[in-house]
Amino acid sequence: MFKNLMLYRLGPGWPASADQLEAALAAEPFAECGATQQKSAGWVPPRSEEHGALVESVDGQWIARLAIETKAVPGDAVRRKTQEAADEIERTTGRKPGKKEVRDLRDDALLALLPQAFPRRSQVTVWIDPGNRWLALDAGSQGKADEVITSLVRVAGKGFEIGLLQTHSSPQGTMAAWLADPEGDALPHAFNVERECELKGSGDEPAVVKFTRHPLQTDEVRQHIREGKLPTRLALGWSGRLGFVLTQALQLKKLAFQEGVFEQDSAAKGDDRFDADVALLTGELRAMIPELIDALGGEVEPGAATPAPGAHPGTSDEPAALAAAMP
Asked: Cβ–Cβ contacts within 10 Å for residue 1, how many?
């Protein structure tokens, strides 16, 4: 159900019940793109049932889903049609169109071609933990996450605040300290380093080193860190139950549960399978996320700062943490 995870903190003004959130999301239901519409976004039933509920509550956890449909016209096709129109004007009037007229011709060409474009649809699953006031998005890009956040803020009304979950230690500095520690004691016992990592240097043309299916707690990796390269992505395992790639922006990629974690609901079907998957997924993540936050120095008190979308703040303890782990 979740392949990626972007974590946000909900402010005190968020809807107090799943019914209230359902009523809010109903203001922006999904509708397919019109003939000349490039993008459409709206809320759909997470169980994929026609006319189903827009918010499902399973074991006190809320699940919703935003659908995004886009139409893309190849730029080359727009350029050709624009040039044809410009050539026709020059042929019939003896003059070349000006810059503004060419822009208008380009817009007309796009509108003419959009009805022929095939729509592409994607969905972003939303998980809200009302007890912890977490908002988690299964979004692979910041653009899709921003679509969800924008819609939520718009439909939920005044006072509905959302901010990125922030930790006292930056993920990048902490990951570097974990990799730089030759004894492996810097990493909390519940986590283990797997065999994927990306290290990036500084400067205008930074060096990038990627490791795939490669041991990471080695002298080679520690040498790269001593040279100033810092991890932007690091594969981790948690308690033998869950694997993921942690990024410098505190995003979780490639979420994968270990074999056997979902065995107990393998025979469930339909609605029962949906409920079982949600209960198991959110149950595991609710146990793991606090431990990850603690490993990153604990959470910054909500409201202390508001980062820009897609960013994660650095911290003053980053050099100290790294220096303490360096051999």
From this structure: 14
pLDDT tens digits for 60-95? Answer: 999 999 999 998 888 888 889 888 888 888 888 888
| The pair of three-digit structure tokens given for residue 145, joined into one six-digit string | 């996450």
Q: Tokens 């659908």 map to which residue? A: 67
For the chain, the first-to-last Cα distance in angstroms comes to 41
The owner of tokens 């146990």 is 287
Rounded to two decimals, what is the model's pTM? 0.80
Written as six digits, the tokens of 317 are 């303890």
User: How would you classify residue 30: left for phi > 0, otherwise alpha for psi between -120 and 50, otherwise beta?
Assistant: beta
Structural contact between residues 166 and 305, judged by C-beta atoms closer than 8 angstroms: yes
d(CA 299, CA 131): 16
Q: How many residues does the structure list for the chain? A: 327
Amino acid (1-letter code) at residue 29: P
- State pLDDT tens for residues 143-162: 999 999 999 988 887 667 88
Locate 156 and state its tokens: 């939920």
